[in-house]
Structure formats: structure tokens, C-alpha cells
Specification:
With 290 residues, the protein is mainly α. The strands form two sheets. Strands 1-2 form a two-stranded antiparallel ribbon. A two-stranded antiparallel sheet has the order 3-4. Strand 1 and strand 2 form a beta hairpin.
């Protein structure tokens, strides 16, 4: 009798555990990727997905973003902080706001990002390209990490590319592959837009990743992500901006004299790459005080 009761208890416990596991799985099972829409508006243009190649390429990126849990969640949390700085600059420079999503696929909205190819910052400029667009890159100063200045440099690039192509998706492709490569392929393949080109895999995906990330940021729950306003990392404006026109021998002392710490000063001014700042005659730097 005791053995029978014990066996029954084991069976009942097994059923209870199985039921709990099923409930847990149902509760935490990630949503399916969103469906590919009929069309999307991007930077004033309309991209339709009524062709199988467009549809399948977009579907691939929607699936990819749905299951990139860690990176996607952190990007959503950081977006308010960095978009607050970048969007007003884009608007002032006449760049469509949708181009802010280039930062998401370039750097995952990480202002400290450094690629294996040496591209740095939110906008991922290489040293050569950065200097071409007016950014200083030295051992002490790397303006690829200065959000305001790197965004202005990105705007210069984007405007130059748009003047050449007249199409923002082609501009986006050139941001990944370079204007020389895209222009040559447009000529060789006799096409007017990068969406119609045979491209290296990375660049071919790049344009659809840009569209997918726009969908993600505009409606995270579609992808199974729930990040409300309280989860967002806020943007804290600097306490003051100090114009520096003479050499600072110790940024540690400079920070303390302005009521902050070296760590906080460096976090606020990632472009300061050393513990000192050499200022040449006639040069002025703006240092943000947190």
C-alpha cells in the first residue's frame, strides 16, 4: 500500500513538474519575428517588399534582430541618451532623422566602439576617413569619440553621398562599402540604386538591416522587446563647457579643479585619449564638465 501511494505521489509530482515547465516555457517563449510589411517609408522614400528578393532579405534581418537579445536590449536602453544628442544635429544639417539608425548597425550605439579594422566611435570612422572629414586623430585627441564632432563629420559624408546618388538607401550602402565601390558597381551593372546591385554579402545585408532596425526602434514589442521609459538610460547635459586654449599638464588636476573626477571627465569626453592635453597655438578645445 505504501509503495502504491509512493508511486502515485511520484506520478503526480511528475505531472506537476511537467505542467510547470510547460507554463514556464509558454510564459517566456520569445515572440515570433514580425512579418515583413508590405512597404516601409525611409528618409522620405518608400521601399516595397512585393518582390521575393526584397521580401526574403528583409525577413532575414527581422529574424536576426528578434533573437539578438543582449545587443538589442542594450541598444534600446541607450537610444534615448545618444539620439538626444545626435538628432538635433541631423535636423540642423538637413539630414533625414532616419539616418540616425546607421549608428545602431555601425556601433550598437556604443560610443567607445572600436572595430577590428580600426573604425571608432558611434559612427565608426576609420582614421583616414575621419581626417578627410575634418576630425583630429592623434595620440592625445581622437575626435571620432566626440559625439558632436563625429556626427557633424557623418553629416558631411551623407550630404556629399546624397548629392552624388540622390537616393538614401544607396547612400547607406556607400557608408558601408565606400562611395568608390558603390559608384563603380552602379556603372558596371547599369543600375541607379544600390538595392538593385549584386553586392558583397555584408553590404547587401546592410541596407535591410537599416530598415529592420528602424522597425525595431519604432515598435520594440513587435520583436518581443519591452523597454519602457523607466528602462531608458537618460541623457545628462554637462554642468558646463570649458574652452581650453592652453596646454593642460594633468587632466586629473583639471577635473578636480572643476569639481569632478578624472573618471567622470574621461567618460564625458571620450575624445581625450591621454592624461594630458597639449594645445597648439591658436587651437581651442571644448571640454564638457559633468
Amino acid at each position: 500500500m505504501k509503495r502504491t501511494l509512493f508511486s502515485l505521489a511520484i506520478i503526480l509530482l511528475s505531472f506537476a513538474l511537467a505542467s510547470a515547465q510547460t507554463h514556464y516555457a509558454q510564459e517566456f517563449l520569445h515572440k515570433q519575428p514580425p512579418r515583413v510589411p508590405d512597404y516601409m517609408a525611409f528618409a522620405g522614400d518608400t521601399i516595397r517588399f512585393d518582390r521575393s528578393d526584397y521580401f526574403e532579405r528583409m525577413d532575414r534581418e527581422l529574424v536576426s534582430f528578434t533573437y539578438m537579445h543582449t545587443n538589442t536590449t542594450l541598444m534600446l536602453k541607450k537610444s534615448q541618451r545618444y539620439f538626444s544628442i545626435v538628432v538635433p544635429i541631423l535636423k540642423k544639417e538637413g539630414i533625414p532623422e532616419d539616418l540616425k539608425y546607421l549608428m545602431a548597425i555601425e556601433s550598437n550605439l556604443d560610443p567607445k566602439a572600436l572595430s577590428s579594422a580600426g573604425a571608432a566611435g558611434l559612427w565608426q570612422f576609420t582614421k583616414a576617413t575621419a581626417q578627410t572629414y575634418g576630425l583630429e586623430v592623434t595620440a592625445e585627441v581622437d575626435e571620432r569619440y566626440n559625439i558632436e564632432k563625429e556626427t557633424l563629420a557623418a553629416c558631411k559624408y551623407l550630404k556629399t553621398a546624397y548629392d552624388k546618388y540622390g537616393d538614401w538607401m544607396t547612400v547607406a550602402a556607400s557608408y558601408n562599402a565606400g562611395q568608390g565601390g558603390i559608384s563603380k558597381r552602379l556603372t558596371d551593372q547599369k543600375q541607379k540604386t544600390a538595392l538593385e546591385l549584386w553586392l558583397p554579402e555584408e553590404t547587401a545585408r546592410y541596407m535591410y538591416r537599416l530598415l529592420a532596425v528602424k522597425m525595431l526602434f519604432e515598435n520594440p514589442p513587435l520583436f518581443g522587446f519591452y523597454v519602457d521609459d523607466n528602462d531608458m538610460y537618460p541623457y545628462y547635459p554637462p554642468k558646463e563647457t570649458v574652452n581650453v586654449s592652453s596646454t593642460i599638464e594633468s587632466l586629473v588636476d583639471f577635473a578636480i579643479s572643476h569639481g569632478t573626477t578624472y573618471r567622470k571627465l574621461k567618460e564625458e569626453n571620450l575624445w581625450l585619449r591621454d592624461n594630458k592635453l597639449t594645445v597648439k597655438a591658436g587651437k581651442t578645445y571644448k571640454i564638457l564638465i559633468p
